[in-house]
């Protein structure tokens, strides 16, 4: 019976995938199936790594708790639906759950819904999560290409094939759904930027994506939304009015529209309260130091919950979050693989410095600045509060694809790689 359910679910996913591919007319259409297969395999690999390498992990716990909730649904559907909406310690199933923290329980509820479809098959459930993440990434790549066709290679590599990005946004983990939401919201942002009209289903999915991302990874949105609001406000409302004014006017206006939602966000979560924010960063840092090996940590210089200390350590946090571990720091196979990616990012970033003047003069410099602000703020925050390289490598999925896209614009190293690959393909054809 489980085999039959698995085949039905796989057939359903393939049908949806085929319908999306059949309607796609983008320049990267030929990589659709390789990218989808890579994503699905990555999700399976996440499960295998946590099953046979780590022996434990969130993904296994999410699934096990999801199975309990799915069984609860089969036994008492009305009570299950009430638990999905407002489940707390008064529910009978509460004491059987391992994950009771708000965000993890929310993830478990989603997993239970998918488990009902997959008949409690972890691997099929993994395919659903990976497929959702892929569709969102594919949609974003198409929007980026419409904005600038020359970015097709950079967008496809960064969002569809960059190994750590594909791996850590696949399978039964929170990042799969959080990044699916973030990629979709980025697509909507770019469509507004390009002054394209949103389709009816996009309007429906926007609040759902915001709700989903906020429930799973609220700190992603706490940076993303202020950047988006500020950029769109300056671009769509005030840009023409300030067209002949000095650039400083637009910069100041952007800062105003950025800090307004930041101040609003600071009232929504206790961790964002101004009087607690820095203390929470230091507290999280200390917790990771207590449970991590010394070689697996980013070490800071007398990190304290003060603005001065945070600013002093921010450059090292930024460098470590973007480019470490480096190959000579790697101690395991997984760290070595990750370090090779980091070397590539470092080389691309160094080569991209030659384009700084072009970026300053670019008609889309506001958009480029927005990517920089988002990347820098989120990277520094995560690297300071999550100094463990293993955990940070998973959290980096929230900003590395955007950073990769930024440093790939007219990058000579990436252009050389693409040209070399094309020449190799031409020789094989001959």
Topology:
Blueprint: H1 2-23, H2 32-53, H3 58-75, H4 77-86, H5 102-118, H6 122-147, H7 152-161, H8 163-167, H9 174-193, H10 200-238, H11 247-265, H12 274-291, H13 307-323, H14 333-352, H15 356-361, H16 365-385, H17 389-395, H18 400-408, H19 412-429
Helix pairs in contact: 1-6, 2-6, 3-4, 3-5, 5-6, 6-7, 6-9, 7-18, 9-10, 10-11, 10-16, 13-16, 16-18
Description:
The model has no long low-confidence stretch (mean pLDDT 88). The protein has 19 helices and no strands. The protein is globular and about 65 Å long. It starts with a helix and ends with a helix. It has a domain at 273-430. With 430 residues, it is an all-alpha fold.
In whole angstroms, how far apart are the ends? Answer: 49 Å
In percent terms, what proportion of residues is strand? under 5%
Question: Level of helix content?
Answer: over 70%
Name the quaternary structure: single chain
Largest sheet: none
Number of strands: 0
Ranges with pLDDT <50 over ≥5 residues? none
Radius of gyration, whole Å: 22 Å
Average of per-residue pLDDT values: 88
What is the overall shape?
A: globular
Structural class: mainly alpha
Individual helix count:
19
């Amino acid at each position: 019976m489980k085999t039959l359910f698995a085949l039905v679910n796989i057939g359903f996913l393939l049908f949806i995938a085929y319908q999306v591919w059949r309607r796609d007319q983008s320049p990267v259409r030929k990589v659709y199936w390789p990218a989808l297969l890579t994503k699905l395999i990555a999700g399976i690999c996440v499960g295998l790594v946590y099953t046979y390498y780590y022996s434990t992990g969130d993904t296994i716990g999410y699934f096990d708790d999801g199975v309990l909730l799915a069984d609860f649904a089969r036994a008492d559907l009305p009570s299950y639906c009430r638990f999905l909406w407002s489940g707390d310690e008064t529910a009978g199933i509460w004491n059987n759950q391992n994950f009771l923290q708000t965000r993890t329980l929310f993830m478990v509820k989603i997993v239970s819904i998918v488990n009902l479809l997959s008949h409690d098959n972890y691997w099929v459930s993994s395919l659903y999560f990976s497929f959702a993440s892929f569709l969102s990434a594919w949609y974003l790549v198409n929007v980026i290409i419409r904005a600038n066709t020359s970015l097709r290679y950079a967008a496809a590599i960064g969002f569809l094939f960059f190994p750590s990005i594909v791996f850590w946004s696949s399978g039964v983990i929170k990042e799969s759904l959080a990044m699916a939401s973030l990629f979709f919201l980025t697509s909507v942002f770019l469509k507004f930027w390009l002054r394209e009209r949103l389709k009816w289903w996009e309007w429906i999915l926007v609040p759902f994506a915001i709700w989903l991302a906020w429930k799973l990874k609220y700190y992603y949105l706490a940076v993303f939304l202020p950047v988006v609001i500020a950029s769109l406000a300056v671009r769509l409302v005030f840009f023409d009015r300030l067209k002949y004014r000095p650039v400083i006017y637009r910069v100041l206006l952007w800062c105003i529209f950025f800090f307004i939602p930041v101040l609003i966000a600071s009232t929504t979560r206790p961790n964002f309260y101004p009087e607690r924010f820095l203390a929470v960063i230091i507290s999280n840092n200390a917790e990771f130091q207590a449970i991590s090996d010394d070689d697996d940590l980013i070490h800071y210089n007398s990190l304290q919950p003060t603005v001065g200390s945070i600013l002093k350590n921010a450059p090292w946090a930024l460098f470590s979050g973007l480019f470490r571990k480096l190959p000579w720091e790697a101690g395991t196979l997984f760290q070595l693989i990750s370090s090779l990616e980091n070397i590539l990012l470092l080389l691309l970033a160094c080569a991209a410095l030659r384009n700084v003047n072009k970026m300053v003069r670019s008609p889309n410099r506001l958009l480029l600045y927005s990517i920089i602000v988002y990347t820098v703020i989120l990277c520094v925050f995560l690297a300071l509060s999550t100094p463990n390289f293993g955990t940070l490598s998973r959290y980096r999925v929230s900003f590395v694809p955007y950073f990769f896209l930024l440093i790939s614009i007219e990058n000579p190293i990436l252009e050389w790689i693409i040209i070399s690959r094309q020449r190799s393909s031409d020789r094989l054809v001959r």
